[in-house]
Amino acid sequence: MAGGETLISNVSDTARWVATYRAMEAAREDALFHDPLAERLAGERGYAMVAAASRIMRNGWPVVTRTRIIDDLIATAIAEGCDRVLNLAAGLDTRPYRLGLPADFVWVEADLPALTAEKEAALAEEKPHCALIRRGVDLADPAALAEFLDWSLGPLGPENSPATKTLVLTEGLLMYLKEETVRAIAAALSRSEIRWWVMDVTVAMNRMRSSSMFENAPLEFEPGNGIAYFEDLGWRSREVEHLLVHARKLHRAPWYLRPFTYLPQPNPRKPGRNPWSGIVRFESD
Fold first, then answer.
1. Which of 28, 136, 159, 210 could form a disulfide with 113 if both were Cys (CB 3.0 to 4.6 A apart)?
2. Is 180 helix (H, G, I), strand (E, B) or coil?
3. Name one GO molecular function term (predicted).
4. What is the dihedral of CA 67, 68, 69, 72, to 10 degrees?
């Protein structure tokens, strides 16, 4: 595993990379969140990935900031009546174990079967704070996705109730998919039971796109018109958080990038060739 090319053999391996940054943040005295399970899930391979990716992302500030923003958006949605979360491509996320969720709240995770089974085994002795259900599914398969949504939005959890105001999370997923798959997912999520969709949107990811480290997990999707791409598909943006600006507010932005956060920022609907990365909570029309 000396070379970056061998560290990431497929998209699922990027989950270890992300978990490592969460573990590093959780170890700080001024941690923005606590994640005692992240280090176990990351493993040695995850830390090797972080070392290899140091030229792309020195201290993991995008992952850390993204995690905190999404934590806050989930809490806001629950306060607004959200009764279910569907975490698509959940990877090694641990929010059901670390967020203050109601015991009867239904949280459904979906990811490829192999990664889902690995996570299930690794956390078998841990108790989530809510009603957590996992399922292995290929989200790029339209028929499998439709079947999963029918099941996951139906009667589940302690009260065996169907979902009525669901939040769908696709953290770190869409960038690895082909555009036609993204459009298919957006169409599949247009259901009355789904109220919100939280995602990260990134434009002009040239450094990651050109890195040999991601040769086996290529970045496929990049909406040239930013969040307008999803608005044109019928999703109304509620909150739009510029990642770098938010990182500066949280004291996580690298010193050499902080001056840029005080300049006029790219229009998230017309970023052009300007690098832009943000977290968005969309609402269905």
1. 136
2. helix
3. methyltransferase activity
4. 120
Place of tokens 């595993």: 1
> What contacts 226, CB < 8 A, 6 or more positions away?
201, 203, 266, 267, 268, 269, 270, 271, 276
Q: What Å distances lie between residue 73 and 69, 99, 148, 253, CA to CA?
A: 6, 12, 24, 20
Rounded to whole angstroms, the Cα distance separating 83 from 38 reads 26
Backbone angles phi, psi at 236, to 5 degrees: -95, 125
Label the pairing between strands 276-284 and 235-242: antiparallel
Written as six digits, the tokens of 177 are 């998919």
Residue type, 189: L
pLDDT at 211: 59
33 DSSP 8-state letter = S
Prediction pTM value: 0.94
On average, the pLDDT of the chain sits at 92
d(CA 244, CA 254): 9
With residues binned 3-state (H G I as helix, E B as strand, rest as coil), the percentages for the chain, rounded to 5, are 40, 20, 40
Kindly state the helix (H) or strand (E) to which residue 87 belongs, with its residue range: strand 84-88
Nearest residue to 19 via CA among 33, 3, 1, 4: 33
pLDDT of 205 reads 64
